[in-house]
Each structure stands twice: as structure tokens, then as C-alpha cells.
Amino acid sequence: MRLRHLSSALTPEVCRANAWRMFDLRPVGYVSGLLVAFLGVSMLVPMSVDLFDGNGHWQVFAESSILTTLTGLLIAMACANGIGSHLSIQQTFLLTTGVWLALPLFGALPFYLGPLEARYVDAFFEAMSGLTTTGATVFTGLDDMPMGLQLWRSLLQWFGGIGIIVVAMVFLPELRVGGMQIFRSEAFDTMGKVLPRAVEIAKQISFIYIAITMLCALVYVLVGMSIFDAINHAFTTVSTGGFSTTDASFGAFQGAPEYAASLFMILASLPFVRYVQLVAGTAKPMMQDSQIRLYLLLIIGLSVFFAVYRMALSDNDLASGFREALFNVTSIISGTGYSSTNYQLWGPLPVVLFFFIGLIGGCAGSTSCSIKVFRYQLLFASIKSQIRKIHSPHGLFAPRYEGRSVADDVINSVISFFVLFVVSLGILAILLGLTGLDFITSLSGAASALANIGPGLGDQIGPTGNFAGLNDTAKWFLSAGMLIGRLELVAVYVILTVNFWRV
To answer: What secondary structure letter does DSSP report for 15?
Structure first.
């Protein structure tokens, strides 16, 4: 009787209702709260800069810091009784997206409350662009902006850079997003122990990330930048973010600084797990990494092509042409988004190529963004395998990556990612067009947001423009695109499904 009563009580409706109740948000809230509190504490750094500089904007940072820190601590304390060493798949997805949504909400406060008197849509856009290391800006007059705000923009990108490395090395392989599971053994085994492993990995990469940043700042000083400009641009170079302290971006630092920036943008675009291995005394994995070799080959090849192309069509000398080509190619392919010149004036062919260069991206497990080199390698390996099967139907041909056979689930994830990226790009471009933007602005703006590149094409959002003149609806769409693109699409889309919320 009791069994019959129990079975009759477990109807599908009851089970679904219990599934909704069983989803525990406390671990997500705890970690998110701590990170929000950390963001609030970090506001004391630009506050100190403004205080030292003698301007009154330090009070805005103090207010923002108190509000952000207290809110984060209260959320963490309220959820502290639910924290454990294990996260479910659902909790991991939600944490990955929730953090990148919560931090810009509070990171926007200094822009919203400060002397810029920015509307919240602009403040949020700037904060989202910073933390996703996109580099698109809605602010002008950067040269006269308070030093604290300049530093805050750079810090947001620096935090976003180290954060995305942890996500790429810990969470995305665990969640099997976009073929990232192929790097799971290299990014350390994380199954069943995401939080402790994330802390361990974060410690290792933080040391390397800080060391590269300090070295970058030192080199910038040596090539002629002021200490303040060097620190800010080191933050935004190593994070491949692209925010600058001047409206002219790197056009104000032409010459040797362009070579220095190119070097560190490349270093930041390489897999940080290779640096961990290098520090441990093993250089072989970095030397043999096929995506690193292909990435460097693309940069050199494209830079030489653009330099020769410009020299053939104008009176540019090869040396300056190569420097400008190297810098701008590296900036766009890495998703940094600096500009030292208006490359739209180079001709129609370079403009088209720059659009597609931005959709390549750097290496997996780096601060760079966009589709990533390894996905193109796997896609072409899969195509090659299919062609061989058509030619020899009875043969056994499996896609291979760095000498190893690639599992079907990895290939399926990569192909799904490409399809999802193209569909998302089309939908976002259409939505932007419906807000009144022209075709070039809509398409390049959508690509800029989803690939986290920074500048788009055209007079309005091109390398010499910014996003200030866009309508509010377009800015919200682009902010959403930055978030979706930075977290590799699937990690965001999956939480929008009904089944995700059923445990």
C-alpha cells in the first residue's frame, strides 16, 4: 500500500516541481558574492590614484567601493552555508555566466556616479567591454579623463583577462564547450573538483600573468611611455583588451612602442598552460604546439603581405609599412583592438581581410578571443577526413590533431560552435540593423562584439571612431553579444533553456 501510494505521488508534474526546488543556487551566489566584493576592494586602487592626483573623483570610487564590497559580502554570507568542494554541471554553467554578468553591473558604478555623468547604458557598455576584454568604448576625451577612471578602465580589462584564462583552462573543458575538452588533460583534471582546482590553477597563472604584465610595463617605459601610460597599456595589452589612455589609441605611441605592443600581444595570445609548463622546466610542449606555430605563421605572413601590398600601391617604405601592418594585424587577430592608423584607407582588400582576421582569434587558453586557431585546425582536419572517406569508402580515416585521433564528440562540438557562431552573428547583425544602423556598422559591430575585437568598420565604429553615437538599444544588444562571445556562446545559451533548470 505504501509503495503504491508513493508511486502515485511521484507523478511527472510532481517530479518536475521537485526538480525546480532542488536546484541549489547558494554555491553560485557564494563565489559570485566574493568576486563582487573583490571588485569593490580593487576600486580603492584608482581611488588612491585620484586622491594622490588631487581631484575630487576619489569620493566616487570610495562610495562605489563601499556599495560594491558590502553587497558582495552580504551575498556571500547569505550563501555561505551552501558552499562545498563540488559543483554540478548546472551550477558551473550558471557560475561562469553569472560572474561575467554581475561584475559589469557593479564595475559600471564609477562611470555612472562620476564626473562623466554617463547614463547607465553607457556605463554598463564600457564595463562589459572592459571585463570581456572587447575594447569597444563609448567615451571620448580620454586624454582629459581623471587618472582614476583611466586606471579603472584598464584594471577591468586586466581582471577580465586573467578571469577568462581560468574559465578556458578549468570550466570550458569541464563543460565540453566548443571542443575545449580536447585540452582537458593539459588544463589539469577537474572533474568533480572544480572549485579547488580553479584556485590551484589561478595561483599558477596569476604569477605568470603578473610577471608578463610587469615586464610589459617596463618595456613600455624603456621605449618612451610615461610610467602611468606604461602601466595602463600593460594592463590592456596583456589582457588583449585594447583600452587606451588617449583618443588616438596607439596612434599617440608610434614607432618602437608598436613593436613592443606587438610582442606582448602575441605573448598574451599563446596558451598560458604552456607558460606553466615552461616555468616547470618543460619547453617542449610550447615548441611543438601546432596552434602556436600556425598562429605565428598567420601573423608574419599577413604582415608581410600588407606591407608589400601597401608599398606596391603607394610610396610607403617597407620598414614603416611592415611595422604598421605587424601592429594592426596582431591587434585585430588577437582581439586586442588597438589601432595606430586608419587601416580602412589601405584599400578594399585590406578592409575585407581585416574583417576575417578578427574572426580567427588567438590560441586556446589565452587572453585572446574570437573563434580560436585550434577550431579551424580541427574543422579542416574533419573536412580532410571526410574527403578521404569519399575517395576511399572502405578506409578508416579519423581526424587527427597534433598526431592524435580526435573523438567524435570533440568534432561535433567544434562544428556546432561554428554553426552557432555564424547564426549568432547573423541574428545580432539583423537586430542591430533593425535599430537603424547601416549594413556595414551592423555586420562589423556584431562581429566586433561576438569576437570581442573592439573596433568595427565604417566611419562610426571604425578604428578611428567609437560606439558613443549608437542608439541605446544597439548598445544593449552589443553588450549581450560581448558576454555571449567571451564565454564561447554555449555557456550562455544553455542556461536559457528550460531543461537546464531541471535537476
So the answer is: H
Question: Could you give the CA distance from residue 79 to residue 489 in angstroms, rounded to a whole number?
Answer: 28
pLDDT digits (tens, 9 = 90+) for 309-368: 988 887 778 888 899 999 999 999 999 999 888 889 888 999 999 999 999 999 988 999
Q: Which three cell numbers stand for residue 435?
A: 535599430
Rounded Cα distance, 501 and 120, in Å:
30
Cell of 489: 556562446
Q: Which three cell numbers stand for residue 414?
A: 567544434
Name the amino acid, one letter, at 477.
Answer: F
Residue 51, judged by CB atoms within 10 A of its CB (0-12, 13-18, 19+), counts as middle
Q: How far apart are CA 335 and CA 448, in angstroms?
A: 9
Percent helix, strand and coil across the chain, each to the nearest 5:
70, 0, 30
DSSP 365-397: TSS--SS-HHHHHHHHHHHHHHHHHHHSTTS--
Q: Are 171 and 194 in contact (CB under 8 A)?
A: yes
Measured distance CA(266)–CA(396) in Å, rounded: 38
Longest dimension (CA), the chain: 94
Q: Residue 279: what pLDDT?
A: 86
Q: How many CB atoms lie within 10 A of CB 286?
A: 15
CA distances 321 to 72, 244, 266, 306, 345, Å, are: 49, 23, 19, 8, 13
Beta carbons of 446 and 358 less than 8 angstroms apart: no
Asked if 79 and 30 touch (Cβ cutoff 8 Å), the reply is yes
Say how far apart CA 110 and CA 412 lie, in whole Å: 43
Beta strands 400-401 and 404-405, pairing class: antiparallel
Q: How many residues does the structure list for the chain?
A: 503
pLDDT 10s digits, 388-403: 888 887 777 778 887 7
List of residues 6+ apart from 419 with CB closer than 8 A: none
Joined grid coordinates for residue 320: 614603416
Residue type, 478: L
DSSP 8-class letter at 144: G
Closest by CA to 125, choosing from 495, 491, 490, 469, is: 469
